[in-house]
């Protein structure tokens, strides 16, 4: 179909697995599972429901008669009641007790939590794959000196692997946050119209213990043992959505930072993202290799970060036990944020599995800046030879300014070292000066930090998962 708008998140960016999790099939079959769980538990707690009715409902969990539901919704303008009606048409014996005592949020909210959890678990696998890819990259290049930047100006040296550990660390923070959110997700449970469980208390003849059991048993049946809100309004607290969208935003923020770094490094020709054999960089400039995958990560990440404000505002504006202005917003914001982060991580996995490093370019950039960085060491060596520290400091300042002037105004190479070697005030042989220019003397504990970080913090995380995730992206 080309005559209707299709979300690019589905068409271009998100995986089939994530699209399936948020599909109608997943949603409405989970609604039916909750209706079955309700009927089963109500029967076990003494209501007049037969096993025959429950078996009939179970037979039709997946063969959803969408046409009947859609037809009824046009008439009633109520999605849940339309599906109750459609389910009842397939289950004539159970028709009269489907949804007994419940309100729409029983299936709507509880199903949303089930689907959110499935989505978070898929993202977790992909997050770990990104960490795994970056771990191997960091270890391979733990020794390779490169320019570090502060204020986007060359500062001291670091190593390529050490910088990759900064990207890993962001993702590890996200993983810890993600695990917290997954572990603390709670169902709405069985609470009724305003959260008082009044309808169920009526059904069970004022037996409070049975109503409490109903809540407890259904949540356990649906995989959330002891994970349900004990007190609610009509819905579960929308703060839970805020926490979920915030962790998605956190992942997007980490990916955004990584992608920006790669875009700059590709501009410097030090590191490039993968480039397909037949990929076209520019429609006009055939020689170009644009960092389009990293740019796409940045672009989608911006969308996710902005989207995280939606549940925060929704949580703030739920009047008393609920208002319905959350519904349409959540229907768009939650699935699309998941699809977007799924697309981001697919790209992140793809880029980190094929980063191309150009050591000679990196070395060239280091050599251009190292003379300035080496001046402190040269100064100390010259003082050891009897020089005056203050006088030599002033000479280095003047030589540095002249060398910088040649580089910036004349486009020539940095001749600071030649100037110092020629200045007899320093009393240093050329070899002694050149010894101060070894890059490995300026990377501090970069190599050791990489090795220790990987050994003690990254590898223990990766031990839990031997699974390698492969992803497909549209380039």
Mean pLDDT, as a whole number? 93
Rg (CA only): 31 Å
Secondary-structure class: mainly alpha
Percent in helix:
55-70%
Which stretches of 5+ consecutive residues score pLDDT under 50?
Answer: none
Q: How many strand elements?
A: 4
Molecular structure report:
The structure is a single chain. The chain is built from 20 helices and 4 strands. The protein is mostly helical. Helix content is 64%, strand content 4%. The strands form 2 sheets. The protein has a two-stranded antiparallel sheet with strand order 1-2. It has a two-stranded antiparallel ribbon with strand order 3-4. A hairpin with a 2-residue loop joins strand 1 and strand 2. The model has no long low-confidence stretch (mean pLDDT 93). The protein is elongated, with a radius of gyration of 31 Å. Helix 7 runs antiparallel to helix 8 and helix 8 packs antiparallel against helix 11. It starts with 7 loop residues before the first helix and ends in a 12-residue tail after the last helix.
